[in-house]
Design goal:
elongated, mainly beta, 7% helix
């Protein structure tokens, strides 16, 4: 199908997504202890996205919106310290809440009278961390830590990253897979840099 024959109707989408979280470090020591400080492995996202056609007669869009994201994870003592007791009650867990604002360029390729569409996208993501906490349990001792206390090694408020992926739409339903690779550090420090790489699979409803 020719691009100029494809629909350019703008759309809105509400979606829910599941996340997998990876942390990348520039320091070997942090690679070894990262699970202790930032055991973030999974997440869930609730969001809204809308599009704006930027070229008359072509299915080229700017997509923008916002989402609320909760990332969390838990590491047992057996994973941290080589504890032989896999059922140990000693653990470290963390949870963060953040608002993300994605801004993408997308190309919506429509088929079968716009019933089916494939939309690759690429752009920027801006994350603002609202809160972050860790809980460490060793024996009878429980320690709660505010990850955003402003000290060295704390979680920074703001990150920016590259956002890319593809969406497949059928009628009003959309399945999307995408990744955000940060290019700014989430750690407050001059020498140690840590960056999130978050992959999201989401299901959306267009209206």
């Amino acid at each position: 199908a020719k691009l100029r024959a494809m629909p350019t109707k703008e759309y809105h989408r509400a979606y829910v997504g599941l996340n997998t979280v990876q942390t990348n470090w520039n320091d070997d020591l942090m690679d070894a202890v990262a699970d202790v400080m930032f055991p973030l492995k999974k997440g869930i996202t609730l969001g809204y996205l809308r599009s704006y056609n930027i070229v008359d007669g072509l299915p080229l869009f700017v997509e923008y919106g916002a989402n609320l994201q909760c990332m969390f994870g838990r590491v047992n003592a057996s994973s941290l310290f080589g504890d032989e007791d896999e059922d140990s009650d000693n653990y470290n867990k963390a949870r963060t809440f953040a608002v993300n604002v994605p801004v993408n360029a997308s190309l919506r390729l429509s088929f079968n009278n716009d019933e089916l569409a494939v939309t690759p996208f690429v752009g920027l993501n801006f994350r603002y961390n609202l809160s972050g906490k860790t809980i460490s349990v060793v024996g009878d001792e429980k320690t709660k830590t505010n990850m955003m206390d402003g000290e060295e090694g704390a979680l920074k408020r703001f990150q920016a990253g590259l956002n890319y992926g593809v969406s497949v739409s059928y009628d009003v339903y959309t399945l999307s897979i995408g990744s955000v690779s940060d290019f700014t550090s989430f750690v407050d420090g001059d020498e140690v840099n840590g960056r999130f790489n978050v992959t999201t699979i989401s299901l959306g409803y267009a209206f």
